[in-house]
Amino acid sequence: MKRALVGLLVVSMFVLAACGGSQAPGTSTGPGSSSSSSSSSSSSSGSGSGSGSAEKVIKIGLIAPLTGNVKTFGESSKMGFELALEQAGYKAGDFKVEAVSGDDKGDSTEGVNIATRMITQDGVKAIIGSVTSGVTIPVGIVANENKIPMITGTATAEGVTVNDDGSRKPFVFRACFIDPFQGQVAAKFALNDLGVKTAAVFYDKGNPYTVGLAESFRAEFEAGGGQIVAWESYSQDDTDFSAVMTNVAALKPDMLYLPDYYNKVSLLAKAAKDKGLDVPMLGGDGWDSTDLDFGTLDGNYFTAHYSADDPSPAVQKFVKDFEAKYGTKPDSFAALTYDATNIMLEAIRIAGTDDTDKIRQAIQDLKGFQAVGGSISFDEKGNPIKAATILQVKADKTYGFVTTVNP
Question: What are the protein's UniProt keywords (predicted)?
Answer without folding.
Answer: Signal
